[in-house]
Amino acid sequence: MALPMVRPPPKSTVSAVCGEGGDQIGVYGHSDSLAGVVAITGTGSPPTSTSYGLYADGGTGVGAYATSSGNDGIGVLAQCAAGGVAVMALFPGAGIPATGDCAIHGDGSSVGGIRGLSTTSYGVSGSSVHGIGGTFTGGQAQLHLTPSGRSGKPTSGAHDKGDLYLDSTGKLFICTESGTPGHWARVNVTAV
After folding, report:
1. Is residue 138 part of a domain?
2. 81: in domain
3. For the chain, how many structural domains are there in total?
4. Are the beta carbons of 160 and 177 closer than 8 angstroms?
5. Cβ(28)–Cβ(3) under 8 Å?
6. Residue 12 lies in a domain
7. Can you give the pLDDT at residue 14?
8. In a domain, 90, yes or no
9. For 39-65, how does the pLDDT look when each residue is reduced to its tens digit (9 = 90+)?
10. Which residues form the domain of 157?
């Protein structure tokens, strides 16, 4: 692949490799069997056998850091074909920093930590082989269900047993049999 010539990095830059492409490619890496680009710092180790477009190992530090300075910018964009996984985080079970025992940690400070959005499927899905599928802790409440725009149980659409539905008046319904719209039962509560 023929690559366009790019400008050299500024003399003030202190780095082993620096790529600046202007409106062209800044850094390009390609490999048929290993990693196209490898970034290692501290006690990090190089890849062994698996093919990666980009491989980063920070050892006890950060392997890869991405940020966006614009209000509508994206720090990291991951995309995959159907049946693939855009982002995968593996928890090795050893040497984990004291900030938390999890594969993915989202910290939004004054905004949401993690947001899931889907047009036709789950926004967020959690599962565990031998543990609990999801756990929630909150200073105001552990869980919030946004009320529907109408009152009463669902009367259309496919639903699965176990679905919870909160109508506009605050009444809670649970689907007891899958179907369209399924069978529903109202959850009776006692005011306190």
Report:
1. no
2. no
3. 1
4. no
5. yes
6. no
7. 55
8. no
9. 887 777 777 766 778 888 877 777 777
10. 144-192
Question: In angstroms, rounded to a whole number, what is the distance separating the alpha carbons of residues 36 and 63?
Answer: 16
Question: In the structure encoding, which two tokens stand for residue 34, read together?
Answer: 């290993």
* Both structure tokens of 30: 């390609």
Q: Which two tokens stand for residue 123?
A: 């926004």
Annotate 43-52 with b (16+ C-beta within 10 A) or e (fewer).
Answer: ebeeeeeeee
Residues of the chain predicted below pLDDT 50: 1, 3, 5-7, 9, 11-13, 94-98
